[in-house]
Amino acid sequence: MSTILITGGTVVTASGTLDADVLVEGEKIAAVLARRPGLEVSITADRIIDATGKYVLPGGIDAHTHMEMPFGGTFSVDTFETGTRAAAWGGTTTIIDFAVQAKGTSLLATLDKWHAKADGNCAIDYGFHMIVSDVNDTTLKEMDACIAAGVNSFKMFMAYPGVFYATDGEILLAMQQAARSGATVMMHAENGIAIDQLVAQALAAGRTDPVHHGLTRPPELEGEATSRAITLAQVADCPLYIVHLSAAQALAAVAEARDTGQNVFAETCPQYLFLSLDDLARPDFEGSKFVCSPPLRPKEHQDSLWRGLRTNDLSVVSTDHCPFCFKDQKELGRGDFSKIPNGMPGVEHRMDLLHAGVVAGQLTLPRWVEVASTTPARMFGLYPRKGVIAAGSDADIVIYDPAARQTLSAATHHMNVDYSAYEGVEITGRVATTLSRGHVVIDDGTYQGSPGHGAFLARELNQYLL
Ligand code: URP
Ligand code: ZN
Ligand code: ZN
Predict the structure, then answer these.
(1) Bridge partner residues of 197 (DSSP)
(2) How far apart are CA 342 and CA 169, in angstroms?
């Protein structure tokens, strides 16, 4: 079995920092060896990686991506191959992507379809959630088969009537079904029925620019839907995970539920921490690059979200990576913002942007690792195989240079999309090396991975439940 010794670095985990060397044997971490003056241990290895001055982190886990996702008559442009490669460049070693049930199709056929898309193509490990858009007796039964197949988190939509939308009754049924096995329902919490009225009013009044995407999806309608989802989950006694939380009103609802001890969890995304409604209002249709749902919010929501990350009312940061090119895809909505495909690229920059939060004093180093790796591992049944630097865990390791400088740009990123939402933004910190199960995927500015190295992860249940 080949061995790698990572020497001289500072190991950062959710519980703290440690000056330690890390020995990798084959695909696993064999030992974490604290360095103490006067206690020198000599170890030989096939390869030595010098991590002096750098952080040694458990690989990032992005629990919310959409590769090759059908949406608005087109597909998100990263394939599993390009998207997982870009993830590795940015220090993410696991993604959990969403299989999308189309109305009238079965969950198991959907799962097969997503396996076929990903199998043999991924540079890093991956799992699936299941989007349930058609609730009926067959679907409800199939949820158990999905759970047996390692897919035990089911996303539902209170938004997008006529596409993914589920009624409160359908949501309750799916939650009751999930609750029987301890599975988690993930919720896109926006009141889509009310939003559709506001969209129709805006278009009728000639308000067609991208900013109206944001103005017709007010934060109150995210707060309302979040409260309603929480109530439905309480009645069904079902664990609930609010995806892509963007608004202070929604966060308040989550915090209140968590204070009562309900199994309610939430994630936010870098775009809600760093970008705002001002970006959606950029002229010349540039705002379309920032169209996602829920929409970017007025800047004042950002402080609440950072605070929520510190108090653990927000426990995960995922990207909701769903890239559509500006040319020909976002452009579908020129003259009608409601036709702009919803979604933004981001899988490559989550670790860097959160590190920028550390540099700005918004998060501690251990909390960075916790929200980006350890908690998603526990939330989605992957811990301690993933999410920690410890003997026996997969050697998914990121060596991160906290002093390096980089400028984010479409000209240099590795995502298969023709723009960057962070064009020209300067960041302190950069991935130096990424290992996926003991294999070097990124090193010193080169990609050394291969499609097909990444393996499907059948996941256990949410590990925060008693
Ligand atoms: O705008 C978004 N978020 N697109 C991806 C689909 C979803 O709702 O997560
Ligand atoms: Zn969503
Ligand atoms: Zn999403």
Answers:
(1) none
(2) 26
Decide whether any atom of ligand 1 lies within 6 Å of the 190 Cβ. no
Q: Which residues pair with 265 in a beta bridge?
A: 241
Which residue's alpha carbon is nearest to atom 8 within ligand 1? 293
- Residue the block writes with tokens 């030992």: 31
295 neighbors 277 (Cβ within 8 angstroms): yes
Cβ(343) to ligand 1 under 6 A? yes
Q: Which residues surround ligand 3, an ion (CB under 5 A)?
A: 320
Q: Which segments within 193-304 are labelled E, that is strand?
A: 240-242, 264-268
Residue 168 phi/psi, 5° resolution? -60, -40
Determine which residue's CA is closest to atom 3 belonging to ligand 1. Answer: 293
Distance 428 CA to ligand 3 centre (A): 27
Decide: 246 in ligand 1 pocket, CB within 6 A.
no
Indicate whether residue 320 lines ligand 1 (CB < 6 A): yes
Taking only the tens place, the pLDDT of each residue in 18-51 is: 999 999 999 999 999 999 988 888 899 999 999 9
Each residue's pLDDT tens digit, 338-395: 999 999 999 999 999 999 999 999 999 999 999 999 999 999 999 999 999 999 999 9
Question: Alpha-carbon dihedral of residues 326, 341, 380, 100, nearest 10 degrees?
Answer: -130
Residues 6+ apart with CB under 8 A from 376: 61, 62, 63, 96, 316, 318, 382, 387
